Amino acid sequence: MSQKNVTRIPFMKMHGLGNDFVVIDEREITPRVDAALAIAIADRHRGVGYDQLAVLSDSPGADVHLTFWNADGSQAGACGNATRCIARHMMDNSGADSVTLTTERGALQAVDVDGMASVNMGHPQLNWDEVPLAHEMDTLSLPIDGAPTATGMGNPHCTFFVDDADSVDLEARGAEIEHHPLYPQRTNVQFASLIGPDHIRMRVWERGVGVTLASGSSSCATAVAAARRGLTGRKVQIDLDGGTLQIDWRDDGVWMTGPTAHVFDGVWHG
Fold first, then answer.
1. Among 38, 136, 143, 155, whose CB has the most other CB atoms within 10 angstroms?
2. Which residue has the higher pLDDT, 35 or 105?
3. Residue 81 belongs to some domain of the structure
4. What pLDDT, on a 0 to 100 scale, did the predictor assign at position 2?
5. What is the spatial distance between Cα 240 and Cα 195, in angstroms, rounded to a whole number?
6. Which domain holds residue 193?
7. Cα gap 210→266, rounded to integer Å
8. Which is nearest to 206 in space by CA: 45, 21, 67?
9. Measured distance CA(17)–CA(259) in Å, rounded
10. pLDDT band with cut points at 50, 70 and 90 for residue 266
C-alpha cells in the first residue's frame, strides 16, 4: 500500500482530572487542523479520542497561542484544563516558573504552584450579551426551571445549584440545556451542590462533547456563580468526577489550580 498520501501528525495525549486532550503543534506540521481532522482524531474507536483538541501556534508577544476544538468538530473559546496541561508541559521543558499563553480570550498567565499549573482564566463575563444569551436578562437567575446562573468564561455556561448533584440525570438534562434557545451558541451545563463551607461538588456536560470527568472553564463558572449568589466565598474547592480543582476569583481574574498528566506521545496517520 502506497504511503505517499498519508499525513503523519505528531501529538501529545494529556489530561487534567480525566478531562482528556490531544495536543498538536501546528508550528511543526504542514497541514492545518480543520473540523474533519478534529472529528477523525476524536473518534475513541477509530482515532485517538479526546474531550478537546488543543492546537499550538505562534503568538507574537506570548509563548504560544492555543486554539481549541470539541469532539464534534466545533471550536471552543476556552479550555482551562488543556491550558493548564500545556502550561505545565512548557514550564517543565523550559525550566521557567511561568508562561504566557494566548487564546480567544486574550493573554492568560500560568504559574507553577507546588508542581501544579495555576492559570488565570481571565475575568468572568457577567452581562447577558457577553455570555452570550439570546436577549437581555438577569444572568444571576435565568427563566429556566431550576433558575440557573449564566456565566461566560470564554465559553457560555449554565450552572444549576441542586441538593444532590450526583442524583441528576446528567446525560438527559445536559443534552437538553446545551441546546436551550436562550443560548444561541449552545452552552456547557453544570450541576453543583454545596458539601461544606467553600466546598462544591460539581458534574458537567460540555457542549459539543457530552459528559466529561472534569472541566476547567466550567469549574471557574461554577465558582463565580456560587460567589455571586452568596453561597460561597470567592475561593473554593470543587470536587469533580475526575478529581479536585482549587478556584480563586481574584481582582485580576479567576485562577484555577490542579494536577495535570502527560500520558503519551504518538503520531497520527491520516
1. 155
2. 35
3. yes
4. 39
5. 12
6. 149-251
7. 25
8. 21
9. 7
10. very high
Single-letter amino acid, residue 4:
K
What is the rounded average pLDDT for all residues in the chain? 95
Average pLDDT of the residues in 1-26: 84
188/209 same-domain check: yes
Same domain, 265 and 243: no
Note the residue count of the chain.
270
Claim to verify: residue 101 and residue 176 sit in the same structural domain: no
Residue 166 has pLDDT above 70, yes or no: yes
Q: Is residue 72 part of a domain?
A: yes
Q: What DSSP state is assigned to residue 145?
A: T
Give counts: helices (H), strands (E), the chain. 4, 17
Strands 199-206 and 243-250: unpaired
Q: Say if strands 64-70 and 52-57 run parallel, antiparallel, or are unpaired.
A: antiparallel
- Cα dihedral 230→108→185→143 (10° resolution): 10
Whole-angstrom Cα distance, residue 168 to residue 221? 19
Residue 3 has pLDDT above 90, yes or no: no
What residue type is 132 in one-letter code?
P
The 10s digit of each residue's pLDDT in 71-86 is 999 999 999 999 999 9
Evaluate the CA torsion angle 56, 57, 63, 69 in order and state its sign: negative
Query: What is the CATH classification number for the domain harbouring 39?
Result: 3.10.310.10
- Cell numbers placing 139: 444572568
